[in-house]
Design brief:
Length: 583
């Protein structure tokens, strides 16, 4: 049982709230329709119930608010609008990525694809899907965790009659298995056919809460539609017989109070030709106020306890509490598995890696022709005209995409709500992006070396004199770029600013650090750094020299710039997490 009590949205500027003191129930085993014209407050009602929008009131799922439910995705499946999936991802990959987010087995994706009839199209990319296929995929995503309830915002709007009938049949079957369904719509006749109970709202307020049978009787009125070249003559004959002619324009008649069989007989006896004769239902539109179907008083609950009907307390209407703003699911149940499937499920990361490696090889060949002697520069393809080596720039772009795509295609959150910044998700993204950066850097170094030695001979690339220190510095640079892009994109919610932050380190931050080093305070820091290096160099074995070498590189302007930038971005990211928890 789902109870929406006193739902009220935040007031709009110079206007009333979109939803005002709305109370109704969604019962298991039934399809409950939330009916209203565009702008009546249907979508806002769903968002208030799901705690996606700030407001007052409370929605209880079996007596518990959604933010108190341990596994919200297993309590309610959501389809609000189109599927926010990456257009380059396949349907199967999209659902398998969501299985990691929901903590269900990956095999569930194939089961759901079969339920929604997309098995034969599972390996097609989402960019090729029609509107009907997209809605099927959205229903599949809502059904992944086998929730007890479905919340769907106009799932059949814009579909063909055949596709809409399929959606309605699926919802009826789901309710027949004991699930509760809340579906919004604007077509009264379709709502009467597909719902067990219809909740009508207008201007954000409750107009009627009725069974489908009572809704049909009070809201929909049957009539006969007639098209005839002798419509006016037929209207005269029917009026004499007591029928009610509601519309008589040209060759069309709308007639109440009779049947199509009776009209057909009259037309036959009078020799009147009919082009069309059909029984139809007219939507009379919402009328306010209508009584509740259960006879418990007016649609809108009274604000004063003294005005409540006898035997009924008005306290539920006063329960309203601020919405907590929870998005389900806020964090993937299996973040590492989710991030791996997100990264490898589209072609973009592979293209970035391939182009970075090609650029690295090209840079290494250019350096070999110019007589460069630095082994690290040749192995990384770092032409000095570039701010960073190609592999490091590629790592930065991969890191920026890790969060940038979450905000552009928010598969983790319904209705394009920004993805919450959570520590578990951040740690998983840092681990995966760091591993990808290390792999890209290693492959670039090996590939550059192999190509140069193949083309120029075995002695073309001298081995670095201090290989552990050089390798550690190269790895730290690649990982630093990846993490800078990741943190900046997560902070600014866009890939472009993530990449900009990576490029700003060598172009802006590093020169600023170099200027600071030349200052008087910087000279004292250099002396302290020299003392630190001498202490590290005194460690036994080769550990001391390696640690001193790595620390020395970190104290260079570019190394200091990366350390400083990563520290600032990480602190800012953590501050947003803590601020969100405080709210």
């Amino acid at each position: 049982m789902i109870q929406a009590i006193g739902l009220t949205s935040m007031p709009r500027r110079n206007g009333p709230p979109a939803v005002d003191d709305l109370t109704f129930e969604v019962r298991p085993g039934q399809v409950t329709g939330l009916l209203g014209a565009p702008g009546a407050g249907k979508s806002t009602t769903l968002r208030l119930m799901l705690e996606l929008e700030a407001g007052r009131g409370v929605t209880l799922f079996n007596g518990t608010p959604l933010h108190g439910v341990r596994h919200p995705s297993r309590e309610v499946g959501i389809l609000l609008g189109d599927v926010p999936g990456h257009p380059g991802r396949t349907a199967r990959n999209h659902l398998r990525m969501l299985t990691a987010a929901l903590g269900v087995p990956a095999e569930r994706a194939d089961q759901v694809l079969d339920v929604v009839g997309l098995t034969g199209l599972a390996d097609q990319r989402l960019s090729t899907y029609s509107l009907g296929m997209d809605r099927r995929l959205g229903l599949g995503a809502a059904l992944l965790a086998e929730p007890r309830t479905l919340f769907l915002d106009e799932p059949s709007f814009g579909l063909t009659p055949r596709e809409a009938a399929w959606v309605h049949a699926l919802l009826r079957a789901y309710a027949a298995d004991g699930g509760a369904v809340l579906v919004t719509g604007r077509d009264a006749k379709a709502m009467a056919r597909t719902s067990d109970r219809v909740v009508t709202i207008d201007g954000g307020r409750l107009v009627a809460d009725q069974s489908a049978e009572e809704f049909t009787r009070t809201r929909l009125r049957p009539h006969v539609a007639v098209h005839s070249p002798h419509a006016q003559r037929l209207a005269g004959v029917l009026t004499d017989g007591g029928a009610e002619i509601a519309t008589a324009t040209g060759s069309r008649l709308v007639i109440y109070g009779t049947t199509s069989a009776h009209i057909g007989e009259i037309a036959y006896r009078n020799g009147i030709l009919l082009h069309r004769l059909a029984d139809e239902v007219a939507d009379l539109g919402p009328v306010a106020p209508l009584s509740r179907a259960d006879g418990r008083g007016p649609a809108a609950p009274p604000a004063d306890p003294a005005e409540a009907p006898p035997g009924e307390s008005a306290e539920p209407a006063r329960i309203p509490a601020p919405s907590r703003g929870v998005v389900a699911p806020v964090t993937p149940a299996q973040p590492l598995r989710y991030e791996l499937r997100r990264l490898g499920g589209i072609r973009t990361p592979w293209w970035i890696a391939a182009l970075s490696l090609l650029a690295s090889v090209a840079g290494a060949l250019v350096l070999s022709r110019t007589g460069a002697t630095s082994a690290l520069s040749m192995m990384s393809g770092w032409v000095r005209q570039l701010p960073l080596p190609p592999a490091a720039m590629g790592a930065g772009l991969l890191g920026a995409l890790a969060y940038g795509q979450e905000f552009r295609y928010p598969a983790l959150a319904p209705a394009q709500v920004p993805v919450p910044r959570r520590l578990r998700l951040l740690v998983a993204k840092m681990l995966v992006s760091g591993a990808a950066a290390l792999l890209l850097a290693a492959v670039a170094a090996v590939l550059d070396t192999v190509v140069l030695r193949t083309i120029l001979g075995p002695g073309a690339v001298p081995l670095p004199t201090d290989r552990p220190t050089q390798a550690a510095g190269w790895a730290a640079l690649a990982v630093g770029c990846a993490w800078a892009g990741l943190l900046a994109a997560g902070l600014f919610r866009t890939t472009a600013l993530g990449v900009t932050a990576v490029l700003a380190v060598p172009l802006v931050v590093a020169p600023a650090v170099a200027l600071a080093v030349r200052s008087r305070a910087g000279s004292h820091l250099i002396e302290a750094a020299g003392a630190l290096l001498s202490v590290l160099g005194g460690w036994p074995g080769g550990v001391g020299s390696t640690a001193a070498g790595v620390t020395g590189r970190a104290l260079q302007p570019v190394g200091c710039a990366f350390v400083l930038s990563l520290t600032v971005l990480l602190c800012a990211h953590l501050a947003t997490v803590l601020r969100g928890r405080g709210r």
